[in-house]
Amino acid sequence: MCHPLPSFRDEPYSLEQKFRLAQVSASWRATALSLPLLWANSTVRTPADAVCLPVALARSASIPLDVRIRWQEDTEWTRGLNPAATHSVVNALLGHNSHLKRLSLEWIIEVPDALGRLLGTGVEFPMLEDITVYGVRGSFRCKVNISAPQLRLLALHHQQYTTWDYLFTPNLHRLEIDGCYPFISAARLHALIFRGCPNVRDLKLHAALAFDYFRNFTATPLRHVRSLSLSSRSMKTHEMADIIRAGFAAIIPDVTLETPDFSVNDDRKALITELLRGITVTGLVFDSTWTLTLSAFDQVALVAARRSFHGCRLPSLCWPDLWAELVAHNVGHTLRVLDFTCDKWNLLTPAIAMHPLGGQEVELRLQLYATSFDHKYMWNIAYWEYSDDLDFDENDELVYYKRVLIPIPLHISNLRRIVFTDLGHYTGPDDEIISRVEYIGKILDVVSTDTATVEVCVSEAGLDKDEDPISVTTYGERYLGGRWTLCSHCVC
User: Fold this and answer.
1) 484-486 and 362-370 strand pairing
2) Residues 6+ apart with CB under 8 A from 274
């Protein structure tokens, strides 16, 4: 099914599918009825599901319940929950409130009034641990008032804070606020989260901030946060820096950011300073989704800290400045792993040449994404309207691809190893595709190093996918020599 919300598509939690399983044969029915856990996980989205829910809950035999209720538009193709069906669902859940463990509510229509009986009248849910709410249209019409002493996860998407503030308690370990409204002031941010949820461990704050004045969070910093996500859709770069600087009592292992700046300005520099404080970056990944990830590994090679600029195109616009700022924080001398997709080669290598790597043995990991060495010429509809690089053929038809097949030279003094991997997107116009063997050869031809011998790993490079496939061993015999040698993994 094609639907704007992926969770509305067919899924294993579907009540309809569970009842189909129980109707295959007498043996299948007996088996289905003997599995309470099968019936304890249910998705309700149609009037038929509403009729089946009481039966499913009865068959769950007091197993902790995971129930997802989703309201969709009622059309001739899809049947949505009507008010009568919603009342039936609420009645069923109230009859099993003592066993409800996870509750997910999603809607793309106006919120049904019947939900007020479930969440607005002080009902006790002694086992309830997770609540996830995703509302595309309209808001919850009553103030939430339930007893849920075991609540650990609260995820609010496109909701009004004041409706749910009763659940911002010290019990929460995971809190997600995404696209909620109205703008949240520093005072409310302090009251709701930094004072109201002191034990939160995973915090996603994609909220629109209205800092009427700077709130110093050092008086009540969060002490247990392990992961933090901040989004540019809702807050400014300097606000992110302020929150990270003063809001946490220890270094956060995992931070994900999406910042609004299109240059490495003073605010972004201040943010990078806060992100890198107290960690030593040893790994950098710039992947196909335009996510820049900085990693710090501890002594047993496990990730001790990660800093991700998620879905951010900034590095493609001002990579030299960003790389220079990272080098200013000594990243160039501590980096041991440099990983990026090869279509960004001509974008990244000039920046690295201006501020070279040094001090550590480096492993270069290259992802074969396309036949180009320059991301600007990848097909992307976003460039059609603004780019000056569009090509037209003799019939004045737009040519979507323009390839750069000459990589810029790269020197890494302490290069230890080069690893090539195939991402499965190695495509382009028929007259411009070159084999992976030839593509890898072009890279090795322009890479220089002071190291006498460098290992090359091509076991995951997709050599078997070329028009004339060859084995890893054959590749080594034919194309490697001099300082390049197959790694032990390839040899085996």
Assistant:
1) unpaired
2) 241, 244, 245
Q: Is the pLDDT of residue 4 over 50?
A: no
Domain count, the chain: 1
Tokens, residue 470:
């060859």
* 377 found inside a domain: yes
Angle (nearest 5°) at CA 236 between 234 and 241: 120
From the list 462, 460, 474, 404, the residue with the least C-alpha distance to 436 is 462
430-439 own/partner pairs: CB under 8 Å, 24+ apart? 432/371, 432/401, 432/403, 432/405, 433/371, 434/371, 434/405, 435/466, 435/467, 435/468, 436/368, 436/461, 436/462, 436/463, 436/465, 436/466, 437/463, 437/466, 437/470, 437/475, 437/479, 439/342, 439/368, 439/371
Structural domain of 428: 336-492
7 located within any domain: no
| Distances 114 to 55, 111, 248, 262 between C-alpha atoms, Å | 20, 9, 40, 46
E runs forming strands in 226-315: 227-231, 254-258, 283-286, 292-297, 303-309
pLDDT tens digit sequence for 302-346: 557 899 887 555 545 577 888 999 999 999 999 999 999 888 898
pTM value is 0.84
Residue 192 included in any domain: no
Note the pLDDT of residue 11.
59
Q: What is the pLDDT of residues 350-372, one digit of tens each?
A: 999 999 998 789 999 999 987 77
Say if 419 falls within a structural domain: yes
